[in-house]
């Protein structure tokens, strides 16, 4: 029979729906089913992540990869091309080596490229102070732009206080 | 503790305790961590991998944690033992195939485990029964802190914890629940629910994680993004949407009961009857029958079996477990016969028929 939705293709899928106890049966084609949001299979995770990553790489990064085959991590000798094929980075330095390319990719994957979570306990105080400092500096900039100089001055004092504190911490950390 | 000690018992995360445990089997949090002075597993030599294993051993000794358990070297294990560990959700399908110097730490209750030299140097994992994502996160957070005092983890201010795959960078965290949704599958609303889950940034996977099939109407729901949000936000998000899904499942159960009571009770009692009487039982059939009976127990239709027993069956009746229990290799046909036999014994000893409530 023909699809009850578009009336064009052969109906290959039967949708049984129970809404408030009333069962309705709809026979539709694959195309309409996909349009209506019914996925064919639950295991969409069957694609290897690596090939998937290659597909969502920004176009510019793809071009760069062919024009910059010499981009190679000094830590583990992984080339950018190899990363594109495997989807796996080779060492922590790769994140620095491929920084420009990863920035976009990470934004696509995570919707962000800035870590906001936990910091290793040993360096927690330092990182948290720095995060706070960055935030205050941003706020100060905004205060200046909106000509709220009183607030800007207060923020500046706060920033200087924090910077002083940070210096003290880093001095304590330097080995004798 | 030895590997074989695990054979006869099931893990604490299957004991049916904790909030919402009739629908949520378990909560799990894992963290991906790498050492800063060794290339990631895919670029490291056998010697370096061995060094990672030793460093992990020393760090856990120095930190005085992870003492009540065993550190197994995976490449010294037989394929059967590896399959056994995979069935228990202790090693990943990836690790099962790898012939590296990889290791697995597991505590005697199977709550805490650490895969060493999987895709990342360390994959810490904590699993608990029921909907307990936050307490699970708190446990793993503490272990991570203690290990990090004794191991230099690869970390960048901008990107957080650095991982081999960019999909895990940042928190390196995956928080997930293993959730049983038979009613949503029966009413076919599951497709809509899965679609909705995708729209809020969560992922749905099969029983054994990424790329595996859905068995017994068990779904794994977890966060997708790991960067740009705090661990607490991730926990909160997964918790909130899990509550939502539980709500959907409850409503679907009510609909089934009010609109198709006899059909649904029939399905449940038939499944129970099959489990008690079958002479040949494949693991796929077992999973779907146990799923139906589990639905019956959590709706109060069957009262003579416990959720914990059913949870345990889903793991203990898997192929590698059967062979470990029998202490010999068996082909698929022999396993199906043995499985039916064991299930009959389990349900007979636990389920006198007079303890059950009859359908009207």
Largest sheet of chain A: 2 strands, antiparallel
Tell me the series of helices and strands of chain B, N- to C-terminal: EHEHHEEEHEEEHHEEHHHHH
Number of beta-strand segments of chain B: 10
Low-confidence parts of chain A, pLDDT < 50 over ≥5 residues?
A: 39-51
> Approximately how much helix is present in the residues of chain B?
40-55%
Please state the overall shape of chain A, judged from the principal axes of the Cα atoms. elongated
Amount of helix of chain A: 40-55%
| Assembly level | heterodimer
Widest sheet, order of strands of chain A: 1-2
- Which range does the strand content of chain B fall in? 15-25%
Low-confidence stretches of chain B: 351-360
Structural class of chain B: alpha+beta
- Report the span from N to C terminus of chain A: 85 Å
Tell me the overall shape of chain B.
Answer: globular
DSSP summary: helix tally of chain A: 8
Arithmetic mean pLDDT of chain B? 91
Mean pLDDT of chain A, nearest integer?
76
Instruction: Determine the most extensive contact between two protein chains.
Output: A-B, 48 and 58 residues
> Widest sheet of chain B: strand order?
2-3-4-5-1-8-10-9
Describe the structure.
- The complex is a heterodimer of chains A (176) and B (360).
- With 176 residues, chain A is mainly alpha-helical.
- Chain A has eight helices and two strands; from the N terminus they run ββαααααααα.
- A two-stranded antiparallel sheet of chain A has the order 1-2.
- In chain A, β1 and β2 form a beta hairpin.
- In chain A, α7 (124-145) runs antiparallel to α8.
- Chain A starts with 12 loop residues before the first strand and ends with a helix.
- Residues 39-51 of chain A have low confidence and may be disordered.
- Chain B is α+β, with helices and mostly antiparallel strands.
- In chain B, 45% of the residues lie in helices and 15% in strands.
- Chain B contains eleven helices and ten strands.
- Chain B has helices at residues 46-62, 79-87, 93-97, 133-148, 182-186, 190-199, 231-277, 283-298, 307-316, 319-326, 332-350, and strands at 24-33, 69-73, 103-107, 112-116, 122-129, 155-156, 160-161, 173-180, 202-205, 218-223.
- In chain B, the strands form two sheets. In chain B, strands 2-3-4-5-1-8-10-9 form an eight-stranded antiparallel beta sheet.
- The relative contact order of chain B is 0.13.
- The interface between A and B is large, with 48 and 58 residues.
